[in-house]
Each structure stands twice: as C-alpha cells, then as structure tokens.
Amino acid sequence: MVSTATALRLDNADACIKCGLCQLVCPVLEVDPAFSGPKVLGPDWHRRFVAGERVTDDTAARCTFCQLCESVCPVGVPIAHLIAEHKSHLDHDPRSRMRDAVVVRPDVLARFPWLTRVPRQLAPVAGLSSTTRWPRPHRPRAASSDGGTSRVGTVGVFVDCFSRAFDGATIDALVVLLGRAGITARLVPADTSVCCGAAAWASGAPHVAEGRAREAARAIEADAGDLDVVLSVNATCEATMHGEWHDVFGIQTSVPSVSAVDWLLDTGVLAGLVERRRRGDRPKRLALHTTCRATVAGEGGADVAALEAVGYEVVQTELSCCGAAGSYAFKAEHAERARRIGSRVGPPAEIVGVAVDSATCALHLGDLWGVRATHPLVWIEEAMRP
Ligand code: SF4
Ligand code: SF4
C-alpha cells in the first residue's frame, strides 16, 4: 500500500515514456553501474507494485534523493518520490532499522550533539561510516536577539535542526548582518530543535517526514506567526518547505519562508551594507557549489549575485550533487559511494574556499577537497566586516 502522503504526489506515476533522460543525470548511476537507476527503481517498480507484484530492488537504498532525475523528466514523473516509496518497502537488517529510526529524526539527534564526539571506532556498531567526517557541535551564539532593540523591524530566522546543533556559525553570520542593518533577528523556533522532514524523505520514510514537517510548521506559527517573513539558510530545508510541505502535505504557514540570501538581495539590505562599507580590496576567488536540491528548485543565482556584490570573484563548481545528501554520506554502506560522487570533479584552481548553502554538503566537500567550505552567509559576513 502506498502511503497516503506519497499517494498525493503520484499523479504522474505511470506517465513514463521511457526516454531515458533521468538515467543521464543520476549521480549515483555515474559512479555505481550496479545501481538500477531512476527509471527502473521509480516508475517501472511502481507500475509492477500497483499491479500487485511485491518485488523490491535493494539498490533503491542507494538513491540520494537529489531529485535531479525528476527535474529533467519531460512528463513530470515524480521519480525520486517513487523511489522514496520503494525504499520504504525494502527489508533492512535490524541494525540499519535501528540506525535509520534515529537518522530520520535529526531534530531529536540534534538535542544530543555530543554524540558526534563518541570515538569513531564505535561507528560501525551503529551502521555508521568511520571514515566520513563528523560535524562538531556548534550552537548559534544568539539564543534570541529579539530584545526590542530593532531600528528597522524584526524578521524570523529559521534554525533548522542541523544549524541548531552543528552550524551555529551560519545563523550567527545572518544575525550579525541583519544587526548591522538595524534589523532584529528572532530565532525560530526559539529554543527547541525541529526538522523540516527532508532527512526522512531521503531515507524512505514519508510518514515520518510528514510528522516532522507538521511539528516544524507548528513551531514556526507559534514563534513567528506575527512576523512578515522567516528567513531560512539551508537550501534543502527551503526546497522541502516549498516543495513537499506544500505539494504533498498541504502545509502552509501564515508567515512565508524565504531564502535568507534571496531576501537580503531583494530587499536591498545587502546593497545598503555594501554601500556603507565600500573598499577596494582585491577580489577573492571563491567556488560556489549550488546543491542539487537548490538546482532543482531553480535557485543558486542569488548566491552568485550576493557573493559578487560583496566583492568575491565567484566560480561555479561543475558538481550536480556532492553525495553528502544529508545523512547519506554518514551511513556505512553509502560512504564510499558518496565520496565517489563528490570526487567526480575537483575544486577550481586558486580559490580561498567553497560557498555552499547546506551544512552537510559543506562538511563533505570541505573534507573531499581539503578546502574551507561554509555557507555563503559566512563568507558574506566576513567580507563585510568593518
Ligand atoms: S533522486 Fe538522484 S540519486 Fe535518486 S535516482 Fe534520482 S537522480 Fe538518481
Ligand atoms: S525521464 Fe521520465 S519519462 Fe523519461 S525515462 Fe525517466 S521517468 Fe520515464
């Protein structure tokens, strides 16, 4: 039985015209010929499934849920979402089941960030990779800066679970930039960890994704319902809130979420900061990796514009997907594949680092390429220091 959540998204499930385009863009297929590929694992599997054939293909678990296949399908088959459904019917060994029960709830995991300090030798016991770089706990400094000191106004800043536990630097950078413009940032949620549900979708647990998404939406309503906008820093969360929340679950919050970089550009806030600080530094060459989810959502252009506005020479990486895919690269059985996906191209020459608006992608690429990789907002804040 296809889950209710996914069923809403399966309108075009049987529309495949067998053009093969999805196969050409799949990053897993590029590095892993044994992977059955999007067409076989998505629409072909689904057709047999609804006809009553209860067959599954274990390689479905290797899909990163990048959604690049969906983005090129000429007839709109929800390929990645079908594969997520396929994953939910796979038989997993008990250790993987236990691990994935935790992995699909990263908001719960984020309440115990010290777990990443557990000795690496113990990782295989939990089905985790002992070679993948782990994040270090780093909470945002500003617990809440909504102290009524605003000169211009207050905006919400959505603190996703990973940022709350491990990527406080990005939230801090945004709060500092807003503060320099006289805008008060209110962290949303104020003091609890929530998840948009992206990790659960990617691991083939749409029903868990729906629960996480509804809880996150309630938290946004409760803590930011009186504001005009909530800014988000993570491309995957942003894509999930605009994609699955809306299209699959029918969730809409009264306050819209907008990419922080887009908002800084569109409102002229960034231009105002640049104008105040204009100085003639030699441009630094910075690579920009637009994540797969941001590419599929048609985003990435704002990051280029914002980084160039503050003086960087930006060179786009040629990587469609880095292989980090949230928790994917942390799982023992996917770690090597994730490295191969991210190593399809190397870093551009003579860069000071990489800007990437997903903290797990930044961790993965920084490790693979041996360069500093962090969120565009961190690079922007550094360039704008007085
Ligand atoms: S979602 Fe990405 S990894 Fe999965 S089949 Fe589609 S292109 Fe391949
Ligand atoms: S791109 Fe779409 S229509 Fe073409 S083979 Fe893939 S699922 Fe079928």
TrEMBL record:
One Pfam family it belongs to: Fer4_8
GO molecular function, one term: metal ion binding
Residues annotated as domain 4Fe-4S ferredoxin-type: 6-34, 53-83
Claim: Iron is one of the keywords in the record: yes
InterPro entries referenced in this protein's UniProt entry, alphabetically: 4Fe4S_Fe-S-bd, 4Fe4S_Fe_S_CS, Cys_rich_dom, Helical_ferredxn
UniProt keyword list: 4Fe-4S, Iron, Iron-sulfur, Metal-binding, Repeat
Keyword Iron among UniProt keywords: yes
SUPFAM superfamilies, per the entry: alpha-helical ferredoxin (SSF46548)
Protein name: 4Fe-4S ferredoxin-type domain-containing protein
Organism, as annotated: Acidimicrobium ferrooxidans (strain DSM 10331 / JCM 15462 / NBRC 103882 / ICP)
